[in-house]
Design a protein that fits this description.
Helices cover 53% and strands 0% of the residues. It has 95 residues and is mainly alpha-helical. It has 2 domains: 14-52; 56-90. Helix 1 (15-28) crosses helix 2. It is extended, with a radius of gyration of 18 Å.
């Protein structure tokens, strides 16, 4: 199968966002266009819930890495909060 060409697009961003893109793309070893494509794809995949699953994203504190007991405690608190939020009236769950 032939590789699809990328369509060239133009977008404007504030300087802080451009700086953040530069920093992250350098850290990941990608160019900015590749980073933007990956970010947009990931975000669009979350927005398009073809299988009716609700995406849940959490950021785990770095200091919990390697500490199983503390990590389990922290995750259980998050699970309780997520459960409570999803069992309430569904108003406000959409972006």
């Amino acid at each position: 199968m032939a590789k699809k060409k990328h369509e060239i697009m133009s977008l404007s961003m504030d300087p802080d966002m451009v700086e953040m893109l530069n920093t992250v793309s350098k850290k990941m070893g990608w160019n900015r266009s590749e980073l933007i494509r990956k970010l947009v794809k990931k975000h669009l995949d979350l927005l398009v819930n073809e299988d009716e699953k609700i995406p849940v994203i959490i950021r785990v504190p770095q200091e919990l890495r390697g500490d199983e007991e503390a990590l389990r405690k922290w995750l259980n608190q998050k699970v309780d909060g997520i459960t409570a939020a999803l069992c309430k009236n569904s108003v406000g769950l959409s972006a």
